[in-house]
Amino acid sequence: MKNKITKYRRLTQTFVFILMFLIPMLNIIGINFIKGTFYSLDVGDIAIADPLAIFQAFLVSKHFVLTMFVSIIIPVLLMFILGRIWCSWMCPYHFLVELLNSIRIKLRIKKKNKLKTYNKTNKVNIFRFSFLISGLFITGVVGIPLLNLISAPGIISSQALVLIKFHYFTFEIVFILILLIIEILLGNFFWCRYFCPTGTFLSIFRTKKGLHIVKTKESCSNCLRCIKSCPMGINPMTDGNNYLCHNCGKCVDVCPDNKKEDTLKFRFF
């Protein structure tokens, strides 16, 4: 099946995006089995929280709270086992950016800036981790979880809740609109690639034994379609375990050699 992984990923993204609006709707009619936003979500008695939000809470409060720590176990385990799939399979911001890119392609609008980062991934990672560390340092100093204020998935999910329950948006939506406008002009997932603190923090939990892309054959047609398709600008043939990779599977879908024999694929260990 052509683009098999992408089709499954689109279904997952769409489900999560709809669920983001469905949760507050259920809460309004008194169904509270599931409640919250992507900052913190309660499913029955199970609490699931954004690891970055919890880490900032520890920095601000200067106290370790066991219940808060327990709430990050599921997402952290998910990252250990499946890699940074939150970003490409579930993040509402990534979903919106891909939607914009699809519209751009259909309208035949060319990207203004074709960034090639596969030969400078180390510099990109240094920049994004430096941005994250700087934000965490300032958070600890001023005592305010500043990175929550620029968490695209957290903002989008909280705005969905406010819209459904109170029928308006707050000023935070302006930040998301600005990012999306820049994405339209520049493309290349600039926020996800260089700045997103949530994605960068989740990268810490990526391991070589977890799910990642590998080239299983020494030789291939060398068409470079995998590199051209990668939203994070890496070379999947040599860098499938890079911190930038979020296991979207686009490179696997577009690889023509996979039609004949497994050449580029997902693998554990």
TrEMBL record:
<dbReference type="GO" id="GO:0051539">
    <property type="term" value="F:4 iron, 4 sulfur cluster binding"/>
</dbReference>
<dbReference type="Pfam" id="PF13237">
    <property type="entry name" value="Fer4_10"/>
</dbReference>
<keyword id="KW-0408">Iron</keyword>
<protein>
    <submittedName>
        <fullName>4Fe-4S binding protein</fullName>
    </submittedName>
</protein>
<feature type="transmembrane region" description="Helical">
    <location>
        <begin position="54"/>
        <end position="82"/>
    </location>
</feature>
<dbReference type="InterPro" id="IPR017896">
    <property type="entry name" value="4Fe4S_Fe-S-bd"/>
</dbReference>
<dbReference type="GO" id="GO:0046872">
    <property type="term" value="F:metal ion binding"/>
</dbReference>
<dbReference type="Pfam" id="PF12801">
    <property type="entry name" value="Fer4_5"/>
</dbReference>
<keyword id="KW-0249">Electron transport</keyword>
<feature type="transmembrane region" description="Helical">
    <location>
        <begin position="126"/>
        <end position="146"/>
    </location>
</feature>
<dbReference type="GO" id="GO:0005886">
    <property type="term" value="C:plasma membrane"/>
</dbReference>
<keyword id="KW-0472">Membrane</keyword>
<feature type="transmembrane region" description="Helical">
    <location>
        <begin position="12"/>
        <end position="34"/>
    </location>
</feature>
<feature type="transmembrane region" description="Helical">
    <location>
        <begin position="166"/>
        <end position="186"/>
    </location>
</feature>
<keyword id="KW-1133">Transmembrane helix</keyword>
<keyword id="KW-0479">Metal-binding</keyword>
<dbReference type="InterPro" id="IPR051684">
    <property type="entry name" value="Electron_Trans/Redox"/>
</dbReference>
<keyword id="KW-0411">Iron-sulfur</keyword>
<feature type="domain" description="4Fe-4S ferredoxin-type">
    <location>
        <begin position="211"/>
        <end position="240"/>
    </location>
</feature>
<keyword id="KW-0004">4Fe-4S</keyword>
<keyword id="KW-0813">Transport</keyword>
<dbReference type="InterPro" id="IPR017900">
    <property type="entry name" value="4Fe4S_Fe_S_CS"/>
</dbReference>
<keyword id="KW-0812">Transmembrane</keyword>
